[in-house]
Amino acid sequence: MITPQPTQPARLDAVIFDYNGVIGLQPTLPMWGELAELAGFRADQLEHFRTAFWSARERYDSGDLDDTAFWTAVLGHRPNPGLLERLRAVDTALWTRTDDRVVALLHRARQLDLPMVLLSNAPHPVSDALDASHWRPLMNDALYSARLGMNKPHPDTYRNALSATGVHDSGRVLFIDDRVDNCRAAASIGLRVLHYTGSPADIENQLHLTVAA
Q1: What distance in Å separates the CA atoms of residue 23 and residue 15, rounded to the nearest whole number?
Q2: What is the pLDDT of residues 166-183, one digit of tens each?
Q3: End-to-end alpha-carbon separation of the chain, Å?
Q4: What are the C-alpha distances in Å from 125 to residues 72, 106, 169, 190, 203?
Q5: Beta bridge partners of 117
Q6: What's the mean pLDDT in 116-126?
Q7: What is the H or E stretch that residue 124 is in?
Q8: pTM here?
Q9: 165: number of CA atoms within 13 Å, CB side?
Q10: Does the structure show a pLDDT above 60 at 206?
Q11: Residue 168: C-alpha distances to residues 2, 25, 137, 162, 202 (Å)
């Protein structure tokens, strides 16, 4: 776990949250299977499907590929409009389930008037769905890779998120993400970081510093 250095101030003035793997739950194997089947892959081709999916996902997340181009790359052929709509809907559903324990912590942080910003690698359909979620108003702002035109761990994604917090001192802003590479990139621009490994208590402990300050 990457934690704040002892020389850093205890007080936090804002928090930047990753979405998937922190607020959002990872897709289950049956959910992956449903999407693969819809895409025309057999059950024994699930890993082949996921390889094709992830090979094009970075460009989709950054906005370089639109929905049609992404699914054409995954399927190997252009989907008809009806199939494209279903693929988009099922894919979005994969990424929009939330961990109620973490959402509860967001409510507690909001009661403390702690500024919170969401920073997520997400394509346009997922971004739109997250903006419509019941917990989204808890965030002061939400930044998505498809709208920024770049993915984490590009340093400018963190600079944009820091600016959105309204805090000038990066050492007073905590960034929470489940990926080590994203945490390292955030730390490189001076943000305090928490590598999240699935325990909401870790977030709670970090936010307790704010309460005690």
Answers
A1: 13
A2: 999 999 999 999 999 999
A3: 23
A4: 16, 23, 33, 31, 28
A5: 16, 141
A6: 98
A7: helix 124-131
A8: 0.91
A9: 28
A10: yes
A11: 22, 31, 23, 8, 25
Averaged pLDDT of the chain: 93
Closest to 171 (Cα-Cα) out of 194, 192, 195, 155: 192
Name which of 210, 20, 211 is nearest 129 in CA terms: 20
3-class DSSP state for residue 183? helix
How many degrees, rounded to 5, is the angle at CA 92 between CA 24 and CA 19? 25
For the four alpha carbons of 55, 75, 46 and 63, in that order, the dihedral sign comes to: positive
In this prediction, residues 73-86 reach a mean pLDDT of 98
Beta-bridge partner residues of 24: 20, 98
Query: Residue 208 corresponds to which amino acid?
Result: H
Phi and psi at residue 70, to the nearest 5°:
-65, -50
Torsion of CA 40, 46, 51, 54, to 10 degrees: 80
| Range 36-48 average pLDDT | 97
